[in-house]
Amino acid sequence: MSEGMSVIEVVLREQRETLLAAWVQAQLAAPGVRTDLISESELRVESDRFLTALAGAVTDETSAPNLMDPRWDDVREQLTTLSRSRATRGFSPTETATFVFSLKEPLFNALRDTEGDLVALVWAATQLVDSLGLFTSEAYLRSREEVIRRQQEELIELSTPVVKLWQGVVALPLIGTLDSARTQVVMESLLQRIVETDSAIAIIDITGVPTVDTMVAQHLLKAVTAARLMGADCIISGIRPLIAQTIVHLGLDLSEVTTKSSLADAVTVALERTGHQIVRRKTPKPE
Amino acid sequence: MDRVNRIPILKLGHLLLVSIQVDMHDRMALALQEDLAERISQTGARGVLIDISGLEFIDSFIGRMLSDIAGIARVLDAETVVVGMRPVVAITLVDLGLTLPGVRTALTVERGMDMLPPPTAVEDLDDEEEAESAGDR
Amino acid sequence: MRNDEDVVRARHRVRELAQQAGLRLVDQTKFVTAVSELARNTIVHGGGGRLHAGLLHDGARQGVYATFEDDGPGIPDIQMALTDGFSTGTGLGLGFGGARRLVNEFDARPNPTGGTIVRVATWR
Prior knowledge:
heterotrimer, A: alpha/beta, Transcription Regulator spoIIAA, C: Heat Shock Protein 90, about 40% helix
């Protein structure tokens, strides 16, 4: 079996140019080729680099190469980078994997002209390409998940903006159900905004939050504590009667936190604390 | 004095300002406490501002150092305000369970100054004396 | 690791690793702070020891780990050390409880050759 690999290595080195040309052609001819997303010259460069790395990694090994071995570091890195780049550009998993799988036919053709047991050689080549292809697919999936995660975070931040009410006061209206991940992201962005706007008071309004479970309540309290550590105070407003009961039943200590049932009350408190006073005009303004 | 890098303490009018920019090791932290205690006594400062906007990590040792400084200052009749804590540091402290007892905090140096006692007429006199003796050094 | 300068070096090294692993800033900060706590523990309570740290790769995820080995007397009751009450919170306690909350994985066990081994890891 190890002969298979060494033959392949020889082929990769000696028939490099023909192999490269045939491989690039196969990629361009593949049904899923995306010349709109990647140029032919870029494909050629990538394929060229990959063949070099591959030739360097394939030596007399047992038939099923262990891709986690340090010898394969360069190959893995190239495939990971490639998958990530394809994923962000919008390639499909199949389109991405085509890069690797389309190497099969040219490789088989090159092997046909060598001496040795063709069946064994083809088998060795198949195993090699397959494991590389699988690795590429996995790397692609990971990148996609990463992109999605980042997009979700951005979405969360966008949908829960921290609003500067006036100098020194920000408000965070939370709407909808809060899950642990979302709450964490939102809290981090609140603290960040507190620093950016130099606001010593933050109003967290949960009027739009139907239920609060233990995790969310704990996150809220953590945010309030963190804000205080930084030198800002939080006022939690819009607490529905049901949520108030939940908080007490959960045994959470809110003695350090100012809570108001309505947003209006919270705003009034914030105004007072920042030295403002709302006075009603004696005579109404003329229209 | 041994060769520990010492964190500079600036006199800001009637207050002392310490700006921690580097990742301190424990001996630096202890040296800072000593230096501060001495400066407070020397200058009779009534307020100390500690700017930690440069700190990327606060562990329990640094936390205790801050509490200790506040305590030492209080005994010497000076108040302390810590300013500029980074959000990620605050979040980490909460998870760590560190509450920084006895430490007052503010978002900025300006706000911190508002929380400290104002200068008194006597202190202006001290400033002149300090300026004179500083010339000797 | 023997002295306080080593704690700072440990922080820097681990911070680099955490950045390489692509951790979010808040997770980086938490992890490095945990390492700082544990490093200090190793020196103060364990009489010095060794830190191994590196990147983790489990095919689907990236992460960073740090392992502390000391040759000290060991901790008679590790379970107790993990409860918050054990740490005085002023830097003198064992600080396991707090550090544990800062990382994804936390494991403390007696070292067969004496002392304790603590391993922490956080994934991206």
